[in-house]
Amino acid sequence: MPEYLYSDDSIVVVNKPSGLLSVPGRGEDKQDCLWRRVQQRFPTARIVHRLDQATSGLLILALDAEAHRNLSIQFQQRVPTKRYQAIIAGIPERYSGRVELPLRCDWDNRPRQMVDPVDGKPATTDWECVQSYDDRCRVLLHPITGRSHQLRVHMQALGHPIIGDRFYASEPYITASDRLLLHAEQLGLKHPVSGEWMAFEAPCPF
């Protein structure tokens, strides 16, 4: 079950576990999802943004139409601040950097995404290494845009895929973890009613 971190009359903030869909997928076997589980407790909950099924961490849901509209506009205008933590394969030559590579769906291999300088949509990720191990590195990731699989593809494009990523890593790093080592640990945004800046944190579980 998701962990409930905050709720009021307008919003609910949860910590999604890895392996749970954010919204229903196609087919009877993909109907269980975070949104439906939250609706069991908050029947009016509406999804504002998503995390990949394999990614854990913070999600905010709106509890009425006005809050949903306000939060959706905030995400469209890139008002929220987001920070992820990940463990990547190998040790980067630098300790921090920015990836600016446009992305689009890899239509022949959906749901995979791919870098496409011609038809891709702009995508930007800032990253910094905070701890290195023998053959891997813990990084903080700050997505400036919010493209599907953005952090996963950008890390792969650097030559350092995220450990446990069955789409973009290769062996031995796919099976080096029983889950994708990517977690949305911080989320900041304006409350949809009061306008007050709110910051939430879900400590990294790995």
From TrEMBL:
The keyword tRNA processing applies. Keywords: Isomerase, rRNA processing, tRNA processing. Residues 11-157 form the Pseudouridine synthase RsuA/RluA-like domain. It comes from the Bacteria. The lineage of its organism: Bacteria, Pseudomonadati, Pseudomonadota, Gammaproteobacteria, Oceanospirillales. Gene3D superfamilies: Pseudouridine synthase (3.30.2350.10). This is Dual-specificity RNA pseudouridine synthase RluA. Dual specificity enzyme that catalyzes the synthesis of pseudouridine from uracil-746 in 23S ribosomal RNA and from uracil-32 in the anticodon stem and loop of transfer RNAs. PROSITE patterns: PSI_RLU (PS01129). It catalyses: uridine(746) in 23S rRNA = pseudouridine(746) in 23S rRNA; uridine(32) in tRNA = pseudouridine(32) in tRNA. It is an enzyme of class 5 (isomerase). PANTHER family: DUAL-SPECIFICITY RNA PSEUDOURIDINE SYNTHASE RLUA, MITOCHONDRIAL RNA PSEUDOURIDINE SYNTHASE. Belongs to the pseudouridine synthase RluA family. Its EC number is 5.4.99.28, 5.4.99.29.
